[in-house]
Write a structure and sequence with these properties.
The chain is α/β, with parallel strands linked by helices. The chain has helices spanning about 10-15, 45-50, 80-90, 105-115, 125-135, 190-200, 215-225, 235-245, 260-265, 275-285, 315-325, 330-340, 350-355, 365-370, 380-395; strands spanning about 70-75, 95-100, 120, 170-180, 205-210, 250-255, 270-275, 290-295, 300-310, 375. It is globular.
């Protein structure tokens, strides 16, 4: 992989700042799937299963001494372990990290616990922040204890899902594309149509897709020039028919973190993957040059994950101190290099470029690229999308 010279640091700023104000949170979409689980027919059912709760005095932070522990519930391998160790050495709290695979799993765990999960920090994707807060799953942040909030890029604060940043602060944002093994697929791939063609030919039986309803269906919608938020039954039926009868038999894995094993081990030749995970996997490969990253075209998604504090957090002082530390400009180069995503801290791209980090074309994007990335929406087709995902997995024998 070659290193792109890099778009000007302000490139993503101008584009992301064009988000329409007052957009309702329930019309947005998480990167890892619609709010649907085996516990509920829809997000509304799952959320209403948990009544709003009042904050307990024990879970509020006022700037007192830090507790001796900190429990984090987040996406797999989503923080530089050296930074976690450095926080413990510097501040004292011993950190325990558990991982979830989807926002649905996160929400289900917090709903079931009703404020007694034992977790301090959680990392929901943007669209989940407000409904989680409204249903008593999150604590309000005390921004006075997070002075580094002032260092955040203006484009990544005051977003529509939390206009006052009462409950969340940007952790990272990214997009979805694919990577392919150039020793198996020797032609150049550029679009989702190319992805589909290669999956049915050179990469048949060697194709991995995300284990996520939205971007799985996105492969069909993006390649056919259809708004991936469509609720048209004809489009949805066509999507299911395509995925189950034409693509499924070529799929060998459904994996939302293929950068961990699939890419480094080259166990698939064509891999749908989030940009940072692709960078991690390619960097871990014994032969990085065999892999080519592609931002899915002509359209794809955009998402943002966030630091938040769980309702009933037993260590709120440590939680605030940790969030403040993790958005400190001083550690962003190490964090970005490890996770492969833009962290939303002001000047992050410039810092990464000056530090000589590799493969920054997989971390930062130009205006033109960001213009092709689209947020999704929760629509009445939510359950249908999940049905299509399940049917595709069944057809693939997963």
């Amino acid at each position: 992989m070659t290193v792109r010279a890099g778009a000007p640091a302000e490139s993503p700023v101008r584009v992301l700042a064009n988000e329409a104000s007052a957009r309702k949170i329930r019309s947005e979409l998480t990167r890892r799937g619609f709010l649907a689980t085996a516990l509920a027919a829809s997000g509304a059912v799952l959320f209403t299963a948990c009544a709003p709760q009042k904050a307990s005095a024990a879970s509020e932070a006022h700037g007192g001494p830090l507790e001796d522990k900190l429990s984090i519930y987040t996406w797999s391998d989503y923080d530089n372990p050296d930074l976690l160790a450095a926080f413990t050495k510097k501040k004292g709290p011993k950190i325990v990290v558990d991982a979830f695979n989807s926002n649905e799993e996160l929400v289900a765990k917090l709903v079931a616990a009703r404020g007694t999960s034992g977790y301090d920090i959680v990392v929901p994707t943007g669209p989940f922040v407000l409904p989680m807060a409204e249903n008593g799953l999150l604590e309000r942040l005390n921004l006075d204890l997070i002075p580094n909030f002032a260092t955040m890029n203006p484009s990544f604060i005051h977003r529509s899902f939390d206009p006052k940043n009462e409950y969340s602060i940007c952790k990272a944002w990214g997009t979805t594309g694919f990577a392919y093994d150039r020793t198996v697929i020797t032609r150049e791939l550029r679009t989702w149509n190319d992805f589909i063609d290669a999956a049915q030919n050179e990469a048949s039986g060697k194709t991995s897709v995300l284990d996520d309803p939205a971007p799985l269906c996105g492969i069909y919608f993006w390649s056919h020039g259809i708004d991936w938020n469509t609720t048209d039954p004809k489009h949805l039926d066509a999507c299911e028919a395509f995925l189950t009868t034409q693509l499924a038999r070529h799929i060998t894995a459904f994996d939302s973190a293929p950068g961990g094993q699939i890419i480094p081990q080259a166990s698939a030749a064509l891999v749908q993957v989030y940009n940072g995970d692709a960078r991690t996997g390619i960097s871990s490969s014994k032969d990085p040059e065999r892999w080519q990253w592609v931002l899915g075209g002509p359209a794809t998604e955009i998402w943002m994950d966030n630091w938040a504090i769980a309702k009933g957090a037993p260590h709120p002082e440590a939680a605030h101190a940790f969030i403040n530390e993790m958005i400190s400009p001083a550690i962003q180069v190490d964090q970005i290099d490890y996770i492969g995503y833009d962290t939303g801290v002001d000047g992050a791209q410039t810092m990464a470029e000056e530090a000589g980090l590799e493969n920054l074309d997989m971390v930062f994007f130009t205006e033109e690229q960001i213009a092709t990335m689209h947020e999704g929406k929760f629509t009445r087709a939510q359950e249908r999308i999940v049905e299509i995902w399940n049917a595709t997995k069944a057809a693939a024998g997963a």
